[in-house]
Each structure stands twice: as structure tokens, then as C-alpha cells.
Amino acid sequence: MDDPFDAGAGSILRQPKAVWATAGASVVAFMGIGLVDPILPSIARGLDATAGQVSLLFTSYFLITAVAMLLTGFVSSRIGGRKTLLLGLAFVVVFAGLAGTSDTVGQLVGFRAGWGLGNALFVSTALAVIVGAAAGGSAAAILLYESALGLGMACGPLLGAVLGNISWRYPFFGTATLMAIGFLCITAFLKEQPKPARRTSILDPIRALGHGGLASAAASAFFYNYTFFTVLAFTPFVLNMSPYRSGAVFFAWGVLLALFSVVVAPRMQKRLGSLKVLGGSLVLLAADVLVLGYGGHTAAVVCTILSGAFIGVNNTVYTELALGVSDAPRPVASAGYNFVRWFAAAAAPYFAPKIEEWTDIHVPFVVAAVTAVLGAVVVLVRRNALTHDAAELQPRHATEDGVTVFAN
Q: Which domains does the chain have, with CATH numbers?
């Protein structure tokens, strides 16, 4: 396999302006996921809310994102990829700005739900647009998308810390401003994408889950995402650090996530195979979160950062499985897959604080370790169904089949 970072024609660095505009806006979109991490304790104090109430910022966001997976293909196959991106960006600008004006935690949770709808419309379309417009084939396009994801996940907590140290409201206003810039860039540089020959129905992603391989990938990713978002949404309360320090921890976490998703994971897959890499990474993630939960404060910091490496590897492998394991059109298959897995992202931030209330601070991480192992068990038991990978993800499918791919 050629090095995608080589300066030749297949490099992810040699791309049209439309691709860079979409990727840049994607960075900001993914920043919104981890933006609130360093300021969760500050929000709780500012709005006189409990950890469980503040964690609903993630639950409302991802619950709407999960349901919206059934709508993104329906919308984009009718109005086109460019208009879908712009609609999603407009929603984020409005609701992120409103979130910064919240006077109660209920208002903030509600505005985050609207933000989640906009983010779903945008990011579910962004990968397909990048794949369709990128130079160098879909492998380079996926790595570019993963780079945007990693950079956004790394920079989100950092931005949240810098602005949140002034006021917990400022990170929301900052996101709205950055997404408005992204809106202008998409408007200026991205031409309308070809509409699919066949319009996507709301039920198409559900029907796609009838494929055993896709259903297995979705089930495994469901368990993995519970672990992922226990780390992301619950750990800030365990670390109990200032916004700057918490932001630095999650910035380092995001750097490892980006490095391992873009650079390390493809090399490991080539050498060991995707399923071995995925299963091993899930088991190591389970061990990591156990130490995070039961170790001292220093161990918790180190394990939080280290989890970024395992999460980065998992994200890349799951993306490729979702895009290649099913015979269904890739955008439809990906929407069905994400519909399942984002429910875990909504559940973890809600249940982790509840489990702590019912037991103690260690048990949420025991549950997270168990779900990571369950994800690995699904991979092991269903390995035959998961080996029907597409040899190469052809860019034409992204535009012919519809524009609703989002696998991270």
C-alpha cells in the first residue's frame, strides 16, 4: 500500500479546495463533541446542577444524533450534499449560540439536542462529500476524514478549557463563530454534489441491518461506544481538575487518538488484519479503563490519555467495517450502523453517574470494561460475518448511492 502522506498524486495532502473546506468544517464539528469536557464541573457549579444532570448534555446530543441517522439520507438524497451540509451547519450555529445563553441546565440540554441534529446532518454527509471529491481514492479520503476527527477531538477540549476558564458560556459562542466560518467556506468552495438516482427512505438504514455482518459490526460498536463515552463524559468528574488542566489531559488524549487512527491503525491492520487489531484493542481498552477507575489520580490521568490510542485504532477499523462489510449501498449501511451505535453514546453519560450514585465511583468503569470486552466477544464470535470487507471503497458510491456516510 502506498503511503497516503507521500507528496504524490495519491497523497491526502493534495486535495481540491472543496475537500479542505469540508474537512476544516469537520474539524470544528468534531470539536463540539469534546468541547464541554473540561467545563462540565464549571457548568455544574454555574447552573447549580449535579454531575448526572450535566452529563445529559451528551445524552441529549447523541440521542438526537442516533435518531437523525434515519433522516440524513432521506434529506440529502432529496436536497443534495451541499445543501445538507449547510443546513446542518446552520443548525449548529443557532443552537450552539443559544446554548451559551442558557439560564438553566434544562435549557442547555435542550439546545444541545438541537445542536446534535445539526451535527448529525453535517458529519453524516461530510465523509461522503470528501470521498466523492477527494483526489487519491477513498483510502486517502477516509484518512483525511479520520485526521479531521482526531484533530477536532483533540482541539475541542483545548478550546473548551481556554474559553471556559473565562466563562463556561464562551466555548459555546466560540463554536457558533467557528461553524459560521465553516458555513461561509462551504458556500464559497463546495459545488453541489450529484444527487443519487434513487431517493433514500427513512426505513432503508433499518433494512440494511438485516445483513449479518453489518448487524455484528453495529452490535460490537454499540458496546465499544458505551466504553468510549464513559471515558469522555464521566472521567472529567473523576479527575476533578481545573478547566486548563482537564483540557490539557483531553488534548493529549485527542492527539493520541488522531495519531493512532491515521498513522498506527492502518499499519497494524496491514500486518495483523483488521479483526485481530480490533479485538486486541478492545481488550486493552477494557484493561485501561479498569486501571483508570481503581488507580490513584496520577494513574487516572495517564490511563485517560492512553485510552485515546485504543479509541483511535478502534475508530478507524470500525469505519472501514461499516463502509465495507455490507452489500447495501454504503451510505445506507453506515446510517443503519450509526443509528445503533450512537444510542450507546447517549446511554453512557446518563448511566455512569447513576451507577456511581447506586454504588461507588469505581463501578462505572467496571461496567465500561465489561462492555469493551463484550465488543471484542462479538468480533470473535461473528468474525466470519465480519470478514466480507470491500477491497477498495470506490468514491463513485458516495455520490451515486446517496450522501449519508458517517462512521465516527
A: 17-400 (1.20.1250.20)
